[in-house]
Design a protein that fits this description.
seven-stranded mixed β-sheet; alpha/beta; binds succinic acid; 15 helices; Succinate-semialdehyde dehydrogenase [NADP(+)] GabD
């Protein structure tokens, strides 16, 4: 019989190491605040290298036992974890909304989304096949088997505090790896709650360890993992500069890396598109989590003949979005995560206006709601010399660029070091085939704004990183291939 936890019970303030809740070795703590109000929710452990090493020690002790469990037994534990997450949907959604700010309906959606990866990898655990290689020489049998890479360090962002860590822990555990993890300093509580439920589901002590750290101490604790040869893999979702730092600093011990990094997603609307469908797709893709999503369109290119019509349709829909705290059942956009995020959005919009953009709706903070709110915004007449054309705004701002032909659109879309998601709308089948091949990205939405699914490979190209999460490919990053050559069989 498993326990049922209220929201209050789910809020943990300590690290989880070797099956125990423990404070940081230094005894230090830092506050986690509600972005809607600025109020402190609780103070969590502010960990440093000693805590990171203690987590690694526990993961190293637990590894041989977990590696040697039967895949079907790992699958059973993951299924129990999945059931517990679903059982706690309401409390987890409230916790996500509390520390991250997204509307409650989106918080619920995130619980289901994150849980879907746990269910998916529970099934995949039992399908880790190797190969028997067709015989090359008499008396020799050659086989390739797959083994867990070892200890995985999972470092996760604040925008999806549950889904991003679930989709790293679930494949790691399914593969037989043990895990040390650190969630973002803005949102550690959901991750700690998830770990509590994993323990309740039967994940053995030491197999899953989580520490929290403030912005000041995050680098020090992660560095302890980067320098430690026992940690064999880093999986990270976050910014490209941090991804590059992790790649550089882990080179000393040549770790396997999965990096899901920044995007600067283009969204192209061709003149033959179904404009209503394109607006709906753009709304879904852009305003998910208030635009604080790596796959959110950052640059919208509209072909000249339909530009004004599309801009009008979009501005009307965007102006109607209700901005409110997560606790308001009608909220569609919540607060941004913190003051720095709002400052960046504000500076991008100001820069665009200074360079000639027209505000069709929004374009301002909403101080009547609180410090971290920004109005959903549509900007017409965007041009490539604006900051928002080359930097991810990570907020509810849609800049509309104008283009004349396919070559111009694809060149502009690809003219970025990033390559995570792209989207385009067209009803011409030949054009669809051409454009889909030309776009440089890991994910392409064709007449569709919602791409993410546990069954699909998620990940980028170019400076958006490497590795894939979800799908049948999602386990590969947690496995290594061992070749066995058996001789003298005749
Ligand atoms: C992200 O923003 O990094 C992830 C979005 C998703 O999984 O759809």
């Amino acid at each position: 019989m498993t326990k049922s936890y209220s929201l209050r019970d789910l809020i943990r303030a300590d690290n989880f190491i070797d099956g125990q809740w423990v404070p940081a070795a230094s005894g230090k703590r830092f506050p986690v605040t509600d972005p809607a109000t600025g109020k402190v929710i609780t103070e969590v452990a502010d960990s440093g290298p000693d805590d990171a090493r203690a987590a690694t020690d526990a993961a190293a002790r637990a590894f041989p036992g977990w590696r040697d469990t039967l895949p079907k037994d790992r699958a059973t534990v993951l299924r129990r974890w999945y059931a517990l997450i679903l059982e706690h949907t309401d409390s987890l959604a409230r916790l996500i909304s509390l520390e991250q700010g997204k509307p409650l309906a989106e918080g619920r959606g995130e619980v289901m989304y994150g849980a879907s990866y746990v269910a998916w990898f529970a099934d995949e655990a039992t399908r880790i096949y190797g190969d028997v290689i067709p015989q090359q020489q008499r008396g020799k049998r050659m086989t390739a088997i797959k083994e867990p890479v070892g200890i995985v360090a999972a470092i996760t962002p604040w925008n999806f505090p549950l889904a991003m860590i679930a989709r790293k822990i679930a494949p790691a555990l399914a593969a037989g790896c043990t895990v040390v993890g650190k969630p973002a300093e803005d949102t550690p509580l959901t991750a700690l709650a998830l770990v509590l439920l994993a323990h309740e589901a039967g994940v053995p002590a030491g197999v899953l360890n989580l520490i929290s750290a403030s912005r000041d101490n995050a680098v020090g604790s992660v560095k302890a993992w980067l320098d430690d040869g026992r940690v064999r893999k880093i999986t990270f979702t976050g910014s490209t500069p941090v991804g590059k730092y992790l790649a550089q600093e882990s080179a000393g011990t040549l770790k396997k890396l999965s990096l899901e990094l920044g995007g600067n997603a283009p969204f192209i609307v061709f003149e033959d598109a179904d404009l209503e469908a394109a607006v709906t797709g753009l709304m879904a893709a852009k305003f998910r989590n208030g635009g604080q999503t790596c796959v959110s369109p950052n640059r919208v290119y509209v072909q000249a003949p339909v530009y004004e019509k599309f801009a009008d349709l979009l501005a009307t829909r965007v102006a109607a979005l209700k901005v409110a705290p997560a606790t308001d059942p009608n909220a569609l956009i919540g607060p941004m995560i913190n003051a720095r995020a709002v400052e960046k959005i504000e500076s991008h919009v100001k820069d665009a206006i200074d360079h000639g953009a027209r505000v069709l709706t929004g374009g301002k903070r909403l101080p009547e709601l609180g410090k971290n709110y920004y109005a959903p915004t549509v900007l017409a007449d965007a041009t490539p010399n604006m900051r928002l054309s080359c930097e991810e705004t990570f907020g509810p701002v849609v800049p509309l660029f104008r283009f004349d032909d396919e070559a111009q659109a694809t060149h502009a879309a690809n003219d970025t070091p990033f390559g995570l998601a792209t989207y385009f709308y067209s009803q011409d089948l030949r054009r669809i085939e051409r454009i889909a091949r030309l776009l440089e990205a890991g994910l392409v939405g064709i007449n569709e704004g919602v791409l993410s699914s546990e069954a699909a490979p998620f990940g980028g190209v170019k400076e958006s990183g490497y590795g894939r999460e979800g799908s049948k490919y999602g386990l590969d990053d947690y496995l290594s291939i061992k070749y066995l050559c058996q001789g003298n069989l005749e």
